[in-house]
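Final report, Chapter 2: Outcomes

The project's central promise was a pipeline that accepts a single protein chain and returns its three-dimensional structure in a standardized token representation, suitable for archiving and comparison. That pipeline is now operational. To close this chapter, we reproduce one record exactly as it appears in the project archive, with the input sequence first and the structure output second.
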Amino acid sequence: MKRVYDAIVLDHLAKYNKMLFLAGPRQVGKTTIATKAKSLAKKFIYLNWDNYNDKQLILEGPKAIAEQFRLQELRSVTTLIVFDEIHKYTHWKNFLKGFFDTYREQVKIIVTGSAKLDIYRSSGDSMMGRYFPYRIHPLSVAECIRTTLPTQEIQHPMKISDKDFQALLTYGGFPEVFIERNKRFYNRWRNLWQQNLFREDLRDLHRIFEITQLEKLVTLLKHQIGQLVNYSSLANKVEVSVHTIKNWLDILASFYYCFTIKPWTSNISRSLIKQPKVYLWDWSRVENSGAKMENFVASHLLKAVHLWTDSGFGNYDLYFIRDKEKREVDFLVTKDQHPWFLVEVKNSHNVSLSKNLAIFQRLTGAKHAFQVAFDMEYVNKDCFLHKLPIIVPARTFLSQLV
């Protein structure tokens, strides 16, 4: 299956002499995307930390790999090497620094991981200047339509088929289940995905042994989509401390199970300051239809701000707005820390246009304000030509992202 990330990876390898980091959830397609790039190389090397023989070679160090694959003898040959899941190696940062600094002229390097590859920032051992990161997301409405390299943030609207739209909403955007579109296959895939995440990654990498309690937290999160996170309430229900709940949420986020959105506070008097909202990377796990639609849009917006940032268009982020009068707008997208557009999610287009869109557009100075309706048919018009708050079809609006 062709992905928009295929074009991004090929563009990176052609332009930059830096390592390329691909990070994202299990089964999102990172390895497939990385291995497709072998068409650019005369020699392709794939080393997986989960493979015993590959692990032993990596542990021997960069020189052993160079000798194994005769890198010093192939200076005139383009070589691409993929290090898959190497973040599981305790000293992966030092290993990559040493390998890249020594052999950067001989090889192009792709690093993939199912945990965040920017955790090194918390330590003094920085690899700044040696890599560019790309966060790989599940399929989206726009990616079902086009997979070309984005040349700007907002795309022209294009129609997604009703079958693809419903499959995306029902089964999620992980390629295997989206392609299969079978309920029984989806149920088995979902259970195995969660089992591998909890029983292997979280236990082995973070030494979390209270798996039953952690799974209870995950069950509770599915019913809190789009709501303010109440750490004390979660702690009481899971029977752990507030500190543990916060720590577990951070760890779940680092493995791309969930993500949080903070409130925007600038220019908003009497705004809420602390509590975030939580969403899942796999929106198909959300049972309530209204919450699933909100999560669906949240995931599309997060993918957009990540890809736009990773591609160098600017620095983008995603927030929500709520004040102490409980006036609220679901999402605010910022560009270089300036409000850009507001998004309110509704099931039906028959709901009146939210007055809060106009209120918070005036307070923030956002250029656009959209009320996204899921039951509206596709309209072949550019949503972003409108400056005043407007009701738009989800199919149209989301097709203009990435």
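Archive annotation: Residues 119-124 have pLDDT under 50 and may be disordered.
This record, like all others produced under the grant, will remain available to the consortium after the project formally closes.
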